[in-house]
């Protein structure tokens, strides 16, 4: 009798021989389970932990017979609100940015078909400044300080809400970035830097991106009139910063007319990396109507400077990141029971599947890039920060020789951390496995899933479909 154990070798076998997972389980599975050195004969009890694989096997076999699959928790449905983001079908100009004078009616973004596998075009990509502890006050650009929202009457602002100034149309051809983003040109101090945050000669990130391809499809998004957005001020008079990260600071704001809450991302180096901002906007646009990223409204432009813009998104989940949530869970300030924990992991898995199915790799999946709505037990999530995301191809990180880099970048798959290996679906799955482990380490089944996803051998990690099946099985088990 063969016993199916959760060993990596089983998954290596599955993957290396390209055997269908369900068939594999069908062959290997017998109704006993060997788990943590114990033989269990009563495998169908829901109470006993660690028997997920038996359940998966059961589900797999049932499915093999019925060809049907049921899911208890549904993924958050597609957004119903119409999005201002639009897909522009063709490239018409060679200039990277083009202003189209006429407004076109808002419509949801159309889905781009399957991922197109192309050989990676190696382009020198954006700099990512090292994590800095940034004081919000020095990040505020002058035009924000000078903001006088009362200059627009409510009626006019309502009009402006509906009638955005213009649409930017951006080409999808690989954007050469070498001239504007090489570390050489920046470290020599030849470029004037915005916001006074990163000074010439600042240390460069050890994890500078060396190569990436921008193959993101051609998507237009809107330039919003800055007068429709009011940036929120703290009682101290400071602008309210939701978070500061590697690429920028995110400010709280609202629509002047309706008070609809917004998160506006200002980039530390907007003038250096316009293509990065554009790429992030296009990826956000591409993922609209999936319900797994915040609603994206377009960009605000710094008056008088066409190169500097900011991303305007829906303010989601009261700004609660998974990082904050895990911290609170570990300090017992918030408690998630087993079912809630599994629900949260389920959402993360399904959301990543949706993102991958649109041809997008996140490449930077970590706990502070996930927002969680803890206002109810649904635990809806949104992935944020697509600054390093790619469409259709992977990107390569440069190996870090910084002490403790393995800890600092532990969310990245080991083969990615090594440099030279481009990111891929399995690398995102590794990062997802880290998240599942951080959230669900108290639950054996989640720990097992996390362990599989974080296998050092990329080929041994479960595929997204296998992962979804495991999570579905686990959810069914807990209901
Ligand atoms: N749509 C949003 N709603 C609420 N809060 C948000 C939103 N987007 C971002 N934030 C907050 O701002 C922080 C920084 O956002 P983001 O990750 O996009 O910036 P970043 O500079 O790219 O950071 P990173 O260091 O992860 O690269 C988040 O951790 C979160 O706290």
TrEMBL record:
Keywords: ATP-binding, Kinase, Nucleotide-binding, Serine/threonine-protein kinase, Transferase
Pfam families xref list: Pkinase
The keyword Kinase appears for this protein: yes
The species this protein was found in: Mizuhopecten yessoensis (Japanese scallop)
Boundaries of every Protein kinase domain copy: 236-479
GO cellular component entries: nucleus
Presence of the UniProt keyword Transport in the record: no
Origin: domain of life: Eukaryota
Chain residues that bind ATP: 265
Protein name: Serine/threonine-protein kinase CLA4
InterPro entries: Kinase-like_dom_sf, Prot_kinase_dom, Protein_kinase_ATP_BS
